[in-house]
Structure formats: C-alpha cells, structure tokens
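Before the break, one more example. Copy the sequence into your notebook; we will annotate it together after we see the structure.
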Amino acid sequence: MHHAESQSIYRVAALREIEARFSGESPPLMERAGAAATRAVLAHSRGARLAPLIVCGPGNNGGDGFVVARILRSRGINPTVVFTGDETKLPADAREAFDSLRSFGGEISHEIPKKPFSLVVDALFGIGLQRPVEGTYAELISRINAMDCPVLSLDIASGLCADTGRVLGCAVRAHFTATFIALKPGLLTLDGPDHSGEVSVYDLDIAPESVLPAEGRVVTTALFRDCLKRRPRNSHKGMMGGVGILGGAPGMTGAALLAGRAALKLGAGRVYVGLLDNAALAIDTDQPELMLRTPADVLSSGFATVLAAGPGLGQGADALELLRQAIAAELPLVLDADALNLLAAHPVLAGRVARRNAPTLLTPHPLEAARLLGIDIAEVRADRIGAALALAERMNAPTVLKGCGSVIASPAGHWYINTSGNPGMASAGMGDVLAGIAAALLAQGWPAEAALACATHLHGVAADRLVDAGVGPIGLTAGETIESARRAFNAWIYG
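Here is what the structure looks like once it is written out:
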C-alpha cells in the first residue's frame, strides 16, 4: 500500500527518539512548540476583550504553557497562568521557560480565579503521563471541564494515554488539540476522539520520517489508490469473482443476507449465500440477485472464488464443520463473528488458519479479539494496537480490531488507524456488512491488506455520509450503509 500521503502516527518511545535527535538544535523544541501553540491560542480564543487561562503542569507540557504565556505577554495579551507545582522540580527546559516568563513580569497563580476567559489552555500533562491522575491535578481537570469557554490541549488532552487512548483516572475534554511533531494513537482510538476535539498537527519544522519511518498511519484512500480502477468496457461477471457467504443459522439468517447484499452492491460478480437454516428462504425478495444455497453447495460448486464465514453462523457442530471446510479451501477467506468465536474455542483450527496459503482476513470486535488471544477484554482495550498486531501475527492474517478508531494490523507488523465512522455504527449487523464489503473487494482481485483497509474506511465513510444527510446517528441501520457505501465507492473510482 502507498504510504506517502497518509498522515504518520508514532507511539511515545519513537517520539522521544525523534525529540532526542533535535535536542541541541536552535530554536529549541519547547520554543517551537510554544510558538505553534500560540498560533492555535489566537485562532481559537473567544471574546475579544477576554484573555486566556493557561494551566501548567509539573513537566515539559507545563513548559510549553509557560512559553505560550510569555509570547502572549510580548504581544500585549495578559493571560492568567496557573501552576500548582514546585518550580525547583521542573525539568531544565520547563524551568527556563518558567523563569523567562517571570522575568517578563508574568504573574503565576496557584488556583483558577473565578472570572471569564477567552479560552483555557490545558498544559498539564503531555505524552509522558503513565499513571492515573489524582489529587490536585484531578481537581484542576474537573475545573477545566466545567468551564464555559473552549479548551485547547497542548500535544494531547491531559489524562489521556498517548499510546492507547485510555483515560488515566480522569482526562480533560478538549475542543481543540494542538499536537506536536506527529499524530499519536491516543488521539485517534478508544477514548481519544471523545477527549481531543479537533486535532491539528504542528510539525515544528521537523520531518519525523527522515529520523524514523512512521510506525503507523491514518487510513485514507491514498493507501489503496492503485486498486481503485475503472472497469474495462469488456467486462463480464466472471471477471468480478464469486462470493460465498457461510452462515445464517436459524434465527440469524438476516446476518448472512446482509453480508451477501453488501458483497453484491460492492461489485462481486455473483453472490451465493449458504444458509445453515435449511428451512429458510428460497429467495431474498428484497435482493433476488442473491443465490440462496445450502452451505455444502456453496463449498462444492466451484463458483465461489472468495468465502466469508461467520455472519449468523452460530457455534453448533454443523457450524464448526463448515468452518473446517472453509479454512481448508484454497480460497481467500474473511472470518467474522461466530467463526472467530469457534476459532477461540478450537486452537487446533486456529493453527490451521495461520498455515493457510490463501489470504485470510479477520474482523474481530474487542471481545472476540480477547477470546482469540486468551486475554481479558480490558487488556485488549488497554492496548488496541498491540492486540491487533498480536492477532495479525499469530493468525498470519490482516486483522481489523473494530471500535472507535478501528486498528488495522498486518502480519508484517504494519498498523493503521481508521478515523471514518461514527457511533451510529454501534448497531446490529454492521459487522456483517463490513465482512461482505471486504469479500467483494477480494473477489475483484484486491490484495488482502488493501481490501481490509478499504472496506473498513469505506464502511465508516458510508455511515458518515448518512449522518451528514440527517440519517442517524441514532437508529442508523446496517442495511442503510450498503447503498451509501456503493455510492461512495463509485465516486472514488469514477468521481
């Protein structure tokens, strides 16, 4: 996949390495960060006659805040600076910034005064925070969150873990985040988006890629642009592949039909839905193009060039046997939902997935991922990137760990965060649609990793467009996202 045009993401250890490379340079990074943050303060301040409040913490993030205060003073703006720490314990650069603000006549308060401000600048904790926030700092954060003016966080909202997006005890809810050098995972996944607001990256005149290649990237269409090809006029359905869906146990036929409809509308030449519920429909009256078959037919007919197992599969003995056969088939395979739960319960089968020659894609939500990894769901949430990478490597399969800021990981150790999508997707059947979209792309010849990145991104874009059109987010249904995804996909190619 192409990387140049999608934004890079780094974890804290890598950022520290990049910072160290520039430690002797002039102007120092703290001065550069302060100048960048000042531009953000001026852009987001509300109320011409009011001044901002800058709340500074005990480390270098506080130092950035002191620099902002000094630059504002030099421009005739008199911010209120709150610092509850001990200046003698500040790191060297932050201490220098503190002294230099003092020499500029900047007053420093120990608590937040009761008066209106144009903006609150949160410079309490940056990306170095490791342990839960408590005591005075927890009180300051709750004060900041209760204020009725916009909040701008420097680098990352205080209290968020920069590597994972976890809230460490409590965290600032920022309206804006001015982040330095590059994006961090914690801004984009788990609780990050709820606390970061609108994120702007200030690179501080550093090209991080020249020091260290990016660890992760944001998913954009640039990643899979090569695959977004117009069809030749001389096309026929056989060229577009055949998708076989395996699932639809009694009471869950809808899941298999949703996956089948998604595969059809995202371009598969033919779609066969193998329903375990043999008393189910002979035809999908809403989508008569779908061919409803027994799962055995789907596997033996030779028409399917790609399989998707799991939508409404259930975990019965017949489901297990079907999954065995799907894994043994030399065809690209998407594994979702109950297929993943069966693998977690049958480690020998999971081992066979890892040894497949044809590509496999996994689409777990956090609980399915936890079962597959044999860990607690809290551990998956605590490190979404680590969990996705572990699964992709263990199963030798590109994996998307779904949720806010879905993480896509490859067996080779690449990872991506998808930022499209919204909370309307927290409803039944969404995963079935994603599996169907991914299967359709595989059927049309897409490489596995690109198919997974595109399907994940496209599904989120489809949901976002519906919300923009006034459909949802509350009550958005999985079926509605199919039509929207088709429209967006065609616009990317034929735009």
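Residues 221-494 form a domain with the UDP-N-acetylmuramoyl-L-alanine:D-glutamate ligase fold (CATH 3.40.1190.20). Residues 70 and 103 are 9 Å apart (CA to CA). Try to locate both features in your own notes.
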